[in-house]
């Protein structure tokens, strides 16, 4: 690939992403916190102070902007903004106003996600994502937050990975909660939550979830638009590269799966300003109607196949289905070996350049994640970050991959000559970009 081919379109968004619960710390009024602290919790460990970004955001943003990125994707926490029903915290809104202002001051266009997996406990107790009440409650919160914060935002995502609960459900991952040996842990979690497990977003994919979630997105989007008409709004979707083995039954099973896990959400995205694409790997459908991981491939800390090419495939799928402008709102790799991240990022971006050359309208790329952070049920073990965090001291440490992505962002191009980047100990380490 020559230099001219390797340039990204002018105005390309270069960012890194986080979510409130995974980085802020002490997010004790949300449903995830209750589940994390239930006896025998299904979560490996509680989120606790996370990486204390609630207090350290100015320094964190300075690091990101110093690298050369031009945007930051974060989420605003509903459980802080509306800690009890109808009770709006002006202090919480002020916090996010300061965060957004700090982004702007540092040349980072702020992209806010209004719901990233967590829901206030008062609403979780009433059924959360398993109840139709969520639709109007979510729209009301969107209106409040967009009225207070919308004028300074660059983009808004309503709900993060709106289709993920369907994928989790369809892939049978909720079955673990039905196992007899899980019964007492499940009962303790439901007691802590004050509701069935399906109240929690990640576990909500059965029942009438798709229609309810689609309505929540549309009403939320309309509420944000009413309060901040200039603001581009979209949803984000979890989109795997999915292929079927060469077999009719496998192809048919994949078509049925995709009809359930993507089609309702692509339809609900009609009329949005953009679609957020989030990808981490690929899945292979077999004739038994189930996804199987390929053998003998490199795996990430999440157990996924190392597959940087997958994000471009996800964009091609989303583009074919919607023809909406696309933003890669998450793509990344969990690894202790930052050299693999340094290989992953340019490979993923190279695939995106080819998709762009083929006419796929990709407008930006956010690496997940800006920082090592709280990986939900897996706790703090998986390391996705461009920036490492020593959670005892809360010291941040730039990884070589952070410097690499920053250099690509500054150049708005791939294929520059070898760069000198900070190594794991801050020493220079050579990283090739092509
Ligand atoms: C989520 C993030 C998560 C990441 C890595 C996405 O599903 O939006 O919150 O940390 O994947 O697993």
Structure description:
The chain has 434 residues and is an alpha/beta fold. It is built from 15 helices and 15 strands. The chain has an eight-stranded parallel beta barrel with strand order 1-2-3-4-5-7-10-11, surrounded by five helices. Helix 3 (53-67) packs parallel to helix 5 (90-105), helix 7 runs parallel beside helix 10 and helix 14 packs parallel to helix 15. The radius of gyration is 21 Å and the shape is globular. The termini are close together. The relative contact order is 0.14. Residues 1-5 and 417-434 have low confidence and may be disordered. It binds beta-D-glucopyranose (BGC).
| Strand order in space, largest sheet | 1-2-3-4-5-7-10-11
Percent helix, as a range, is 25-40%
Q: Which ions and ligands are bound to the chains?
A: beta-D-glucopyranose
The percentage of residues in β strands lies in 15-25%
Q: Which oligomeric state applies?
A: single chain
The total count of strands amounts to 15
Radius of gyration: 21 Å
What is the string of helix and strand elements? EHHHEHHEHHEHHHEEHHEEEHEHEEEHEE
Q: Pairing-aware structural class of the strands and helices?
A: alpha/beta
How widely separated are the two ends?
9 Å
Report on the biggest sheet: 8 strands, parallel, barrel
Residue-averaged pLDDT, rounded? 95
Outline type? globular
Count helical runs. 15
Note poorly predicted spans.
1-5, 417-434
What does the secondary structure layout of this molecule look like, with pairings?
Blueprint: E1 13-17, H1 20-23, H2 31-36, H3 53-67, E2 71-75, H4 78-81, H5 90-105, E3 109-115, H6 121-124, H7 133-149, E4 155-159, H8 164-170, H9 183-193, H10 209-227, E5 233-238, E6 241-244, H11 248-261, H12 263-268, E7 274-279, E8 282-285, E9 291-292, H13 310-322, E10 326-331, H14 338-357, E11 362-368, E12 387-390, E13 395-398, H15 400-411, E14 419-422, E15 428-431
Parallel strand pairs: 1-2, 1-11, 2-3, 3-4, 4-5, 5-7, 6-8, 7-10, 10-11
Antiparallel strand pairs: 8-9, 12-13, 14-15
The structure holds beta-D-glucopyranose.
């Amino acid at each position: 690939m020559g230099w001219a081919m390797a340039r990204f379109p002018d105005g390309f968004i270069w960012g890194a992403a986080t979510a409130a619960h995974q980085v802020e710390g002490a997010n004790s009024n949300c449903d995830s916190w209750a589940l994390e602290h239930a006896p025998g919790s299904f979560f490996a460990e509680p989120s606790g102070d996370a990486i204390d970004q609630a207090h350290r955001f100015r320094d964190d943003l300075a690091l990101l902007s110093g690298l050369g990125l031009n945007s930051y994707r974060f989420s605003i926490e509903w459980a802080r903004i509306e800690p009890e029903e109808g009770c709006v915290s002006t202090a919480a809104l002020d916090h996010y106003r300061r965060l957004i202002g700090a982004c702007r001051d540092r040349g980072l266009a702020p992209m806010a996600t209004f719901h990233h997996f967590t829901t206030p406990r008062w609403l979780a107790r009433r059924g959360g994502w398993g109840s139709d009440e969520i639709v109007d409650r979510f729209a009301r919160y969107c209106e409040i937050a967009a009225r207070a914060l919308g004028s300074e935002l660059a983009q808004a995502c309503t709900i993060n990975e709106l289709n993920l609960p369907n994928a989790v459900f369809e892939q049978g991952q909720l079955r673990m909660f039905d196992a007899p040996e899980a019964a007492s842990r499940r009962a303790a979690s439901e007691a802590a939550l004050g509701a069935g497990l399906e109240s929690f977003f990640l576990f909500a994919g059965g029942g009438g979830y798709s229609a309810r979630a689609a309505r929540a997105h549309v009403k939320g989007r309309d509420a944000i638009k009413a309060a901040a008409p200039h603001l581009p709004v979209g949803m984000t979707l979890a989109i795997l590269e999915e292929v079927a083995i060469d077999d009719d039954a496998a192809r048919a099973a994949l078509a049925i799966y995709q009809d359930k896990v993507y089609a309702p959400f692509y339809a609900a995205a009609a009329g949005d300003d953009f679609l957020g694409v989030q990808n981490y790997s690929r899945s292979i459908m077999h004739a038994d109607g189930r996804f199987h991981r390929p053998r003998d491939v490199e795996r990430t800390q999440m157990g996924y196949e190392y597959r940087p090419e997958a994000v471009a495939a996800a964009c091609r799928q989303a583009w074919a289905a919607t023809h909406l402008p696309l933003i890669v709102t998450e793509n990344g790799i969990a690894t202790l070996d930052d050299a693999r991240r340094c290989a992953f990022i340019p490979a993923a971006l190279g695939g995106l350049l080819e998709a762009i050359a083929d006419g796929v309208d990709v407008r930006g790329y956010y690496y997940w994640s800006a920082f090592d952070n709280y990986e939900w049920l897996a706790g703090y073990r998986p390391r996705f970050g461009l920036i490492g965090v020593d959670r005892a001291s809360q010291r941040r440490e730039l990884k070589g991959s952070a410097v690499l992505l920053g250099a690509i962002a500054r150049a708005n191009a791939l294929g520059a000559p070898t760069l000198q980047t900070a190594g794991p100990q801050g020493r220079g380490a050579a990283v090739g970009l092509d």
